[in-house]
Design goal:
globular; 6 strands; alpha+beta; Rossmann fold; 6 helices; 3 domains; 4-stranded antiparallel sheet
């Protein structure tokens, strides 16, 4: 997409056989209808966040959008702000300014446990909490704090049929 935006004067976006939008690359990039059709509504959005660790400003005007159907990976050298970005999203570090929304809800002022109840989870690579589970099963652990529609907590069933808190014997 970056190459298309870089070398095009005009772009026509089609969706399901119909013209959805046309215009300059910048007009298309900002077009909410195109964003929704291509990426789905944003699941997570960071808008100009600034985060400090002590007196040191680590994040400066960081913006990021993750669509419902997207997978995003933060990559960078040590000290680039990857962990601080994650800690800001999950609520372990307060924002000095900016906005974080999850499924359209402003979560910037919510404590970490409330964000977890919304379905935001974190599986650090070195935690070793459930080392015998697969990556997918470790991610499912995040759902432990999520509430069902009736307000009751549910223990998810993992792909091997066990619960993360009550594994099958022999697993």
């Amino acid at each position: 997409m970056d190459i298309i935006f870089k070398y095009s004067d005009r772009i026509v976006v089609m969706h399901q056989g119909k013209i959805l939008a046309s215009g300059s690359p910048e007009e298309i990039r900002q077009n909410e209808t195109v964003k929704d059709a291509v990426f789905g509504p944003p699941m997570l959005e960071l808008q100009g966040i600034n985060t400090y660790r002590g007196q040191a400003q680590i994040l400066r005007q960081v913006s990021l959008t993750v669509g419902e159907k997207e997978s995003v990976c933060l990559v960078g050298r040590n000290g680039a702000g990857k962990t601080t970005t994650i800690d800001s999203i999950i609520g372990l570090l307060p924002l000095r300014s900016g906005k974080i929304t999850f499924q359209g809800q402003d979560i910037g002022g919510l404590p970490a446990y409330r964000r977890a109840r919304l379905g935001i989870g974190y599986a650090p690579e070195d935690a070793g909490l459930f080392p015998d589970l697969t990556v997918a099963e470790n991610f499912q652990i995040c759902r432990l704090l999520a509430k069902a529609s009736d307000g009751r907590r549910r223990l998810p069933r993992l792909t091997n049929g066990s619960s993360p808190c009550f594994p099958r014997s022999g697993n």
